[in-house]
Amino acid sequence: MDDENSPAVLSRWTAILIAVLAMVTALAVGHLVAALTDPDASPFVAVGDSVRDLSPPAVTEFAISDLGEAKKPLLFGGIAAMLLVLATVAGLLSRRRPWPGLALATVVGVVGLLAVLDQYDVDTVGLLAPVSSLVAGAATFGWLHRLAASGLTRPADTSRRRFLWTGAGVAVGAAAFGGLGQVLAGRVDVEASRAGVGALTPSVPAPPIPATADFGTPRFITSNRDFYRVDTALLGVPQVRAQDWLLRVHGLVDEPRTFTFNDIRARRLVERTITMTCVSNQVGGGYVSTANFVGVPLRDLLDETGVRSGSDQLFSTSVDGWTAGTPVEAVLDRDRGALLAIGMNGEPLPTEHGFPARMVVPGLYGFVSATKWVVDLELTTFDAKRSYWLERDWAREAPIKTQSRIDAPRSFATVPAGPVTIAGTAWAQTVGIDRVEVRVDGGAWRPATLATKVNDQTWRMWRVEITLGPGTHTAEVRATDRTGRTQPRQRVAPIPDGATGWHSRQFTVG
Ligand SMILES: Nc1nc2c(c(=O)[nH]1)N[C@H]1C(S)=C(S)[C@@H](COP(=O)(O)O)O[C@H]1N2
Ligand SMILES: [Mo]
Q1: Distance in Å, CA 371 to ligand 2 centroid
Q2: Whole-prediction pTM value?
Q3: Pairing with 76, which of 170, 303, 310, 378 sits 20 to 30 Å away (CA)?
């Protein structure tokens, strides 16, 4: 270093290693401090959320509907890869002097800080995580850099060993910090809170599902485990304990009110069997499921607060800031029976499905109605406020479209010769299914047998037995609802208000 003739230049690998270790330390410290103070303020998570929000709608749509659960590892993997590239650059720029790397580390740290500020309503305590992340990263970088540079003036062997041991120590320390942060972040014990809710016994249970309503392809009631899931939450779903939950009802009402979980569960609970559907569901897709939801009619809550004339939108907000805009008319419609649900299939709502409370509005796609972890209901107008997906080019009006799906035989299955059972489900929430027809290889449409109807808010199972010759066949299905409308053949993509088209399946009779 002090030798004018041979300026201290770190080897490339040493320089990169220093920068990567500093970055990992910064992330780990940020994660741990966030867990100790405000789990929402973890800079890494906040950057992920900001990337999601700044992405063009088409990208977000693709990520949510086509990548499903893979979106999280992909997003965070992408950010990690980007950070690795930045660390490499910072390292290579800092082979002589630490300043360029420190400057770059500071910029990255500030980006993390801005992301946290952008994403959350953080108080001063919440800023501790991004700030300590920045400081820890810069300090580690400076320290390791000094250590490595000073080693250049000492006998190679001892200094290299010393540097490697220190580096390994930093890596282990960072892993421990990060791991501890991860454990502590999960500390909000929502499972204990769920267990504490105990049995939710409805005063008005849903009528039992008759055996003749269930052909088994698929099962009529979807288990909580198998129930489809769609949410924008990236690193784990919101963790809200029942005792911490409050629901505010306000806006164009006569008397604003705030409900606690105990207020809700002490009311007269009703149980309703409802089929939920996601607008992102492709023809033949699995984003449709049925459950027995327990809760209070949303109409009852709104009757108590009063709804002023002129309010046409119920604007609901979840604890993670997601929003939906539901027509007030649909929410107040007695026949439809919209719920503030706290139970699902005999247990408190699973955390992923919105514990402690969510909205369920039969007949409307989830993105305009099914707010999970709901904490705020504002009576307003569609002119005044725009909800999450409306801002991202999806529709304002989103009634569920009549659809049908083939579930058996499985795609490309080989079935034994003899009569083949083709079976599946069809739905036309609020009006009900009138008939389902199947045709094979473009032949004549044949009526399928419908299972017993449960109610107009649920799907309906169907099946038909057809004898086919050996070889490969294509079956198609179409449903007609009770308004007399038959599903159009034309394939339309989910965006902006739901897919249409006939589902078809290929299989072989062997
Ligand atoms: N807070 C929150 N609520 C949400 C969403 C979300 O991303 N965040 N997704 C909505 C969408 S698009 C659908 S289809 C349903 C899915 O509910 P489920 O995951 O319980 O099936 O929840 C709705 N409620
Ligand atoms: Mo959805």
Answers
A1: 10
A2: 0.75
A3: 170
Q: Which residue's CA is the closest to the ligand 1 atom numbered 10?
A: 367
Residues with Cβ within 8 Å of 401's Cβ and at least 6 positions away in sequence, in order, are 487, 497, 498, 499, 500
Compute CA 69 distance to the chain's CA centroid, rounded to the nearest angstrom: 8
124 CA to middle of ligand 1, Å?
Answer: 31
Domain(s) of CATH 2.60.40.650: residues in the chain: 403-509
Mean local confidence (pLDDT), 293-308: 97
Quickly tell me which residue has 């989910």 as its tokens: 494
For residue range 180-196, list pLDDT tens digits in order: 877 776 666 788 889 89
In the chain, residues under CATH classification 3.90.420.10 are 195-392
Q: Cα of 380 to ligand 1 centre, how many Å?
A: 21
Q: Whose CA is nearest to atom 9 of ligand 1?
A: 231
Q: 3-state DSSP call for residue 76?
A: helix
Q: Which two tokens stand for residue 122?
A: 């953080």
Going from the Cα of 252 to the center of ligand 2, the distance in angstroms, rounded, reads 27
- Tell me if the domain spanning 195-392 has CATH number 3.90.79.10: no
Q: Which ligand is nearest to the CA of 232?
A: 1
Distance CA 488, CA 482 (A): 15
What is the pairing mode between strands 403-408 and 446-447?
unpaired
What are the tens digits of pLDDT across the range 353-396? 999 999 999 999 999 999 999 999 999 999 999 999 999 999 99
Contacting residues for 375 by C-beta, under 8 A, at least 6 apart: 240, 245, 246, 247, 248, 317, 318, 319
| Atom 20 in ligand 1: residue holding the nearest Cα | 353
Please report where in the chains the tokens 């999970």 appear, as a residue.
372
Q: Which of 49, 69, 228, 278 to mutate to test the pocket of ligand 1 (most atoms within 8 A of CB)?
A: 278
Spatial separation of the C-alpha atoms in residues 351 and 238, rounded to whole Å: 8
CA-CA distances (angstroms) from residue 311 to 293, 323, 326, 377, 391?
A: 27, 17, 11, 12, 20
CATH class of the structural domain 403-509: mainly beta
**Which residue lies with its CA nearest to atom 21 of ligand 1?**
229
Ligand 1 near 385 CB (within 6 A): no
Quickly count: other Cβ atoms within 10 Å of residue 287's Cβ.
19
